[in-house]
Each structure stands twice: as C-alpha cells, then as structure tokens.
Amino acid sequence: MTDTINLNRMQFYGYHGALLEEQRMGQRFDVDLVLKCDLYQAGTTDRLDQTVNYAEIYTQVKEIVEGCSYALIETVAEKIAEAILLGYSKVESCRVKVIKPNPPIAGHYESVSVEIERFRATAYLGLGSNIGDRAGYLKRALEALQAEQKINVVRCSSIYETDPYGRVEQPDFLNMIVQIETLFPSIALLHKLQKIEAKLERMREVHWGPRTIDLDLLVFDQMISYSEELSLPHPEIARRAFVLKPLAEIAPHLIVPRINRSVMEMWQNLNGEEGVRLWKKNNGEGKFGLFEN
Questions:
Q1: CATH of domain 121-280
Q2: Which among 71, 87, 109, 260 would be 20 to 30 A from 254, CA to CA?
C-alpha cells in the first residue's frame, strides 16, 4: 500500500529527558507522523468516516508528549505509535519521528531525533499440550493471548490429537494452530509467548519432552530471520504433520516465506496423515469455536 497521511512538525512542550533539569524545566519537541492506510474510499466518497481524523491524531499525540515525562524520546515515540495503531484500525503502519531541537549534550547539534515504524502483523502460532488437562491448557493459552492488548486472536483451527514428536516416550498431544494479528515485533512476540508458557507452568527440562503448553511462533508476516533466539519461518514446518494439517485447515493458500510453497502443497507432499487425528472440530460454537461458554 502506498497511500499515506503525513502530519509534519507538530510542536509540543514536554518534560522528557534523562536529566532532572529537563524533566523540571521542559522543552520543545517536534513530531512527524506517516500513517499508511487505504484512502481510496475516502477519496471516492468524500466521507470523513472513511479516513483518519487528523485533529484527533494531533490531540492524542499532544496528550502523550505533554503528559507523563519519560527519560527517553524512544519511549515517547513508542507510546505514540501504540496509541495510533490501537485506536485506528484503518492505519496499517505508523512511522513516528520525535525530534528534540535543543539537546543538552556537549557539542553543536541542531537537533537529535528518534524514528520508528510499527505495523500490524499477521502471525501463525502452534499450540500444544500433553500434560494434565490438555484442552484446559489450550483454552487458558488462548485466553492469555486474547487478553494482551497488542494481540487479537483472528482464527483457530480444530484441535488434533497427535503422536509425540521425537524420541521421548510421553503421552499424546493436543495440537492446534492459531492465526493472530499483533502489534508486537517478532522478538517481542516471542518473549510474550514465553511469558504465557511460564504462567502456565511450562518446564523446559527435556528437549521435545512433555509440557503443559507449547507456544511456537511459526510464521510472522513474510519475515525471514536466522538467529539463535528466533528463526522465521519455523525451520520444522515442512516436516511436521501436526503443524501442517491444522494450518492447512485455516490457511491452505498461505505461501510460507523462504520455502516459497503453499501450506496445502507442503501438506500434500508430506505423504500421509499418520499420527494426527481430529479430536475436536472447530464449528464456530462456544469460546474460540472450540470450548463451551
């Protein structure tokens, strides 16, 4: 998308800085915004409700910059981006530049600034449990995801009972796939998933061992990354029937980055559904289409 709304050099008086003098005396801050959104309907209908109200945006930015004081303008920028993306569903991404015209640091500077870009991402998560109340742990994990302000659970697959993966003897798993929309960057989302696992008593004592809950970040938009902490897409997607079968149920035509093949194609090429059995079909009834209210 190439449509943008630009709000340039909005000027405010705030009390941000690492020095006590900055927080006491205050100073001017300038803010630039670039909002990406589809403006076709606004342009063809001439209706205000089909665009973003610039006056409202200005007021929100003003409340943030002139409200609480922060040590870092990085925090100011993050707060602005979060408020806009949470408050305006038409905005797909938000680039924020916060400028401090007169920084109290040695040397000659016209200004210092921080610029960030945040966006709505679509991610696919794999959920699994094979200890205790397996369905109960899946439900609690979904509730924890939905409770996060920056996460929206969009769609859930049916629940499948699957044979354990790996060489560790253990009970069968319940597995499912969840599509979410999130404002978290990929690493921040991974950390959030790990916190949810910890709250649900996930222990990491045996590799591929039994667990109360497992939350795997499988795909994050079309991002490709390689690191010790996070590789995207998940490197085992194409080899795991318990991932591909539920994923093909809710996103059969998703092209997985790096692999460059659709989920349905990978599932069909896996040759066999052994070890993956439908346990509870998502019929749209009850909580998340799976659980009784």
A1: 3.30.70.560
A2: 87
